[in-house]
Amino acid sequence: xxxxxxxxxxxxxxxxxxxxxxxxxxxxxxxxxxxxxxxxxxxxxxxxxxxxxxxxxxxxxxxxx
Amino acid sequence: xxxxxxxxxxxxxxxxxxxxxxxxxxxxxxxxxxxxxxxxxxxxxxxxxxxxxxxxxxxxxxxxxxxxxxxxxxxxxxxxxxxxxxxxxxxxxxxxxxxxxxxxxxxxxxxxxxxxxxxxxxxxxxxxxxxxxxxxxxxxxxxxxxxxxxxxxxxxxxxxxxxxxxxxxxxxxxxxxxxxxxxxxxxxxxxxxxxxxxxxxxxxxxxxxxxxxxxxxxxxxxxxxxxxxxxxxxxxxxxxxxxxxxxxxxxxxxxxxxx
Lengths: 65, 259
Prior knowledge:
The complex is a heterodimer of chains A (65) and B (259). With 65 residues, chain A is mostly beta strands.
């Protein structure tokens, strides 16, 4: 289905947020997720379904002061 | 002297230096500088993952896990709502509930927006974060941030990355007098003497990044900052002499060899 990930449309065969992370090669990485404006805890990734058009923000820690 | 520790949000700290992780020439120099600085708290920013580059470009791969307290910032936020959103994302990492509220109002100066910073601090304190707002060196807004529940208040010495040093030592001194929570000078410092002066004014700690990361030798500068913090802190605790207008000799004139 089509999802909007970090502002860009992507076609992914995913059912849950955890699937999205797996398909993008991000499993096991220190990633934080917001789904349609709601910040998810790590334990919610497997139980949060994705729906067509869902906006996902995938962020992480970068260098900064 | 017994161990000169201090506390932020119930966490006991020995080092009085918080170190930013931006702008270092490479990860090896960064790690060595972190070690040389003696810091226990590292700051980070939160940004989108680049989905088209598969390699792990997270800063955390370069940092020894569980060794440091993480202080993510809300840099890039222009409003309280944006800062709160970034803070919630940072906490979802499961790695830290500390947050440096940083809301810039002006692209050229990056000076903090005091009204939005206060709003964000109020919201995040209610949500249980340990909130450390970066703010102007204004004693009134600093006090309001303390009243809002900030765990520490972080006035800037000068705009971020300028290295101008403490532009208003009178205000920094007043902020230390007025507040009960730790005061941490954040941003604008350039070199070791700036750090020593801040500590002599009685602040509890220093947050810096550019002066270490962009020094010709970041590792040596990190050590210099550690020593400057110690020197300034000891000078503050030991009590400096008052300034006088005219000379007073170290030895009296009694028993002088000249008749």
